[in-house]
Amino acid sequence: MLPTSRSMPVCTAHQLLHACARLSSPEWLGQGGTPAFITLAINPGIPPYPGHSTSIRLCAAHRPSTGRLESRHKQEDLEQEKQQHRQNIRDQEAILIHLMCKVVNLLHSGASSSLELQLPRLSLDSKGGAGGAQQAQSCREPDQLSHQLSDSKTAFISCYLSNRGIDVSALYQSNFQDFIAYHGDKYHEDTNTLGFINLGLSENKHCIDLLTERLSQSDMNYIDDDLLQYPDWRGHAFLREEVAQFLTYYCKAPDLLDPENVVVLNSSLSVFLTLTMVLCDPGDAFLIPTPLYSGFTLTSHLYSKVELIHVHLQSKMDTQPFQLIVDKLEKARREAKFKGKKFRGLVLCNLNNSLGNIDTLDSLKEYLEFAKRHNLHVIIDETYMLSEFRASIPFHSVLNMKSLPDPNRTHVIWGTSKSFGISGFRFGTLYTHNKEVVSAIGVFGFLHGIAGITQHKLCRLLQDRE
Ligand SMILES: Cc1ncc(COP(=O)(O)O)c(C=O)c1O
Fold first, then answer.
1. Where are the coiled-coil regions (predicted)?
2. Ligand 1: residues within 6 Å at CB?
3. Residue 24: its pLDDT value, please?
4. Domain boundaries, the chain
5. pTM of the predicted protein model
6. Looking at the domain covering 211-463, what would its CATH class be?
7. Which residue's CA is the closest to the ligand 1 atom numbered 2?
């Protein structure tokens, strides 16, 4: 057993990579060694334990091989074992690639002055599997761990979290560290002139005064029984009706949009993530033009485990820089198919974050026709719908089209975070003709729904066209 405070030898990135390489060596694989997990922490605050500063301990569970040798006299057994061995190597390679990605992410997160690597000693369960998590817990005292975490703001290390939890935690650290710092020390023109100004966040603060005034009016403070009870999980009918009217008006839809095609959830990204959940199985893929909004990447990884295949746009085009053209989509689709990817659709963002581009109605039609040709879903995020600022390039929603090429595979996202500058409200909405998608997504209102009182306020805001 590793001693408590001394169980985390400090190592350099180079040593870490070396350790990963060792795990794939025949020395480990040949014995069926299965490292359950490696826990990494970026922990600049804790000095290396003397004698361990340059060494890394590798611990792995070795599956008992009782009886294997005796039965190996037959040629088939040997062959079977070789196959198993090759499979082991493939599995180990997959684990290593995953670990290397984590290492690279951690290094990229920029917090590392030293890396600590802990390889928990693994126990054997009765079936020969590795009970790594429990054993890891015994490696260190929990109190000490939390002390270290709070003291030195360790990026993450845990003997409490599952592998999935560790993954999520890593994601949180690599994506939100700056955001947390910003929230702890925000710039203020009078009280904190040395605070952070967040240039990485798209928050519209220009109409906060107008919204504060509107939200302070008496009609906003309405409460009734229904608002205090569980709502229809797709959202209260009064709000879905208002959303349908609002979108009809601002998207210039040729016909009145149907409230039954609307679902409201607690953000545009919640709508995105639930769409990927109900349209894909884990490992399925979506094409997405890049540069892209990182929220898509984070969200699809967090829940649905959908792969986003990037369609790289170029800055040098004859007509418009970074323009998406169908040829690029076709090429990306062919390449993905060739690699055996099962992909289900295309994610579009109009107006585009991060480019600011606006798609013309003609190009939108081409993208939708492309999707229809290949039976692909199109998720189109129009969250920035009301943020156009050049009259010469007007925004067109796909809901503006007389008829959608494939209505049952076209799903439109909008929300108030950008258009109204109220990202704190957490409101996003889906418009889709596909009733199966509506009902499947509706289920998520159970978890990602909006408070009744907020739904009322949102309804009043949407009614107000001034
Ligand atoms: C394209 C796009 N969609 C969605 C969001 C997030 O919106 P919400 O706060 O409603 O999740 C953002 C935020 O920057 C965005 O840029």
1. none
2. 202, 267-269, 293, 295, 349, 353, 381, 383, 415, 417, 423, 428
3. 41
4. 10-174, 211-463
5. 0.69
6. alpha beta
7. 383
